[in-house]
Amino acid sequence: MRQISRLMLGLSALAFAGAFSASGPARAQSEAPKPKAEESAEPKREENKETKREEKTEKRDDKTDMRGEQKPKAARGDTSAEKSAEKSAEKKNRADNGVYMRKLGQLIRARSPGATQLGEGNAIVRFRLGASGAPNSVTVVSASTPRHGQLARSIVSGLRAPPPPGGSYDGVQSFRFH
Q1: Is residue 29 classed as helix, strand or coil in its secondary structure?
Q2: Angstrom distance (rounded) from CA 27 to CA 33
Q3: 177 and 149 in contact (C-beta within 8 Å)?
Q4: Both 113 and 168 in a single domain?
């Protein structure tokens, strides 16, 4: 038995010594280059990153295609200048129209009688002024009585206004008679 236990001790010592000496190569194996299967996995990850970048680029390209061609930044500056010029022209047109409407309102009030023998009533007239400022067409939209409609129509038909901005003017005027 003693011999068996000595033998076992000897074997276990050899095994321990072998394991201890093998730990050095085991470390070297862990530090050694990874097997080819692992190496092939890493480039795939890099490829995945590259393909994701390409997909993002393609998506951006698709978006620009959907919007149309994008202009260079210098051209965008020109566009903003054009937009501001359009806005200022639009503001000027509104201001001109506002001034024209006030003038037109003054002329219509000057032609309207203060009181009528028709009694109280109202009328709405639609009209179009041509380039000369004279009415081209006058239609009665609604009136409380036909005579109120005729009176409103005659007020606008005899109107001589200055030439409207833009060449013509379409308007609607309501009258309230006392």
Answers
A1: helix
A2: 12
A3: no
A4: yes
DSSP symbol at 159: -
Domain that holds residue 164: 108-177
Q: Is 86 helix (H, G, I), strand (E, B) or coil?
A: helix
Q: Domains in the chain: how many in total?
A: 2
Cα(155)–Cα(119) distance, integer angstroms: 17
Tally Cβ neighbours within 10 Å of residue 138.
19
pTM of the model: 0.52
Residues 60 and 113 in one domain: no
Looking at residue 130, the DSSP 8-state letter turns out to be -
Does residue 65 or residue 131 have the better pLDDT?
A: 131
For the chain, the straight-line distance linking the first and the last C-alpha, in angstroms and rounded, comes to 139
Q: How far, in Å, CA of 169 to CA of 101, rounded?
A: 10
Judge whether 141 lies within some domain. yes
- pLDDT mean over 104-119: 92
